[in-house]
Amino acid sequence: MKKIANILVEKRIVILIFFVIFTVASIWMMTKVKLNSDMTQYLPDDSSTKKGTEIMLDEFPAGSSFNIMFKHLSDIERLAIRSELEEIPYVRSVSYEPDSDLYNQDSYTLYTVNLSVNAYTPAVEAVTDTIKNEFKGYDITMSGDALGNSSKDIIPKLAVIAFVILMIILFIMCSSWVEPFLFLATIAIAIVINMGTNIIFPNVSEVTNSISAVLQLVLSMDYSIMLLNRYRQEKEKTADKFEAMKMALAGAATSISSSSVTTVVGMLALCFMSFKIGSDMGLVLAKGVLLSLICIFTVLTALILIFDKAIERTAKPAFHIKMDAIGKFSFWARKAIPVFFVLLFIGAFFLRGKVGIAYTMSDYYEINKIFSPKNNIVVLYDNADEDKIATLAQDWEENGDIDTVNAYSTTLGREMTYDEMAEAPDMETSMVAQMYNSYFAYHPEVGTSTSPEKIVLTDFLQFLQNNVAVNPQYAELMPSDMAQQLVTSMQQIPQQMMAQEMTAAEMATTLQMDFPIVEQLYSFYAISKGDMPQGKIAIYDFMQFIID
After folding, report:
1. Where are the CATH 3.30.70.100 domain residues in the chain?
2. What are the tens digits of pLDDT across the range 98-156?
3. DSSP 414-453
4. Is the pTM of this model over 0.70?
5. Beta-sheet pairing, 534-535 with 108-115
6. Fewer CB under 10 Å: which end of the chain, C or N?
7. CA-based nearest residue to 178, from 61, 306, 67
8. What is the rounded CA–CA span in Å between residue 361 and residue 373?
9. Are 49 and 351 in contact (CB under 8 A)?
């Protein structure tokens, strides 16, 4: 190690220039590192969520969504802005209801923007940039998983706080006002090089990229302090600073290297996590600690020698924590302390299951402080299990913790009575009931049609005159020329036939009307008498029946 120490000291300027150039190059390489915001890519291959995500991408069209909250909008602006949002490229639809508390709270207005592209794509960023440009004069807040903005926003703030705390501690504990700046300059070079050399990976998680700098800083700072302390000790033995640094490097290399290797191995252990982001973080941080070690032996060595006089001129009393009392207590309680920690371990073991797990950033988003957060869960199933899922969906709808369940069985596949169906498409109950009667006539296994088999001719004619002819809904069934035709037919029908019961086919022949029209009128006749169809039809089947 003495030979290496000699080279590091004697070639310190060349080495420092090399690392400065490497740092500049790393700044350029940082711009070429691909960042990944899609956390689903790090799920284990055997994870049901991973498999479900892959099926969704293969079987269903791309899509994602995010929320945008406006403040102080008038009623006219609220509807106008929804229309403007819908005109933005890649926006499939915008969810907003003017009269709903889910979208309106005091002076706040919420829109859910549904996109035709997957989350974490450049198209999403294009949409948000367009929104920011078009609504510059408005007070807006955006959030949502599609934006991938959770770590972008909060982690830099935490990094600033950590940096300030670290600087305060260094200024208090160091023996010179210059030392903290030398430490930070050295670690900063290591951090930049680490972030630039991430270009060797296909991509780096956005989370890893955000926290790696802070973690590298705190994990490596000890090595800088260890080297400088050893240098100060060696200077007390010799007046030659170069010789003192050589001795410090040779003497501290073993302890610093051992400590760093332990840290590097600990970071690499993250690679064995089933959640693949552990591998992403482990490799980046292990590389960062190794680069910090190299920079401390090279860059910090040069900086200490260059600023040696400045360190001496800015010397100050260092704050030292007196450990005498703690040492006496540790010796006095040496038998009780192991027992205490065993009990603490047992207690922690049983309490670990009581820790709440956060599955979303709902408390973080500003929008969720105004509007109740919504957490959507997607459940994929094979179409062959449709009947089983219908039962499950019904159970979920009855769960008080679940607001709504959107599935085939609860939407298009949901079975409804005629009056429930009338409310859905906003149609007349009588018209829907008539269609139900027609459907049940074709599918008697599903429900019971109340269309009469036979009607007295006189009753039917009176029904046409009093109910059908005056109802605009049935204008197509009985136009004005048909009404005149019925009057002529009535004059030609023998009196004895007027009290005769007839089937729909017989009635059509007698009155010279189309059989399908008479068949529908028979159904309407039963409904006008209060005889409603019995049974339920799925919305999809009902609509398909009408179309066909």
Report:
1. 42-149
2. 888 888 988 899 999 988 887 777 888 889 889 999 998 898 888 876 665 545 556 66
3. -EE-HHHHHHTTT--HHHHHHHHHHHHHH-TTTEE----S
4. no
5. unpaired
6. C
7. 306
8. 10
9. no
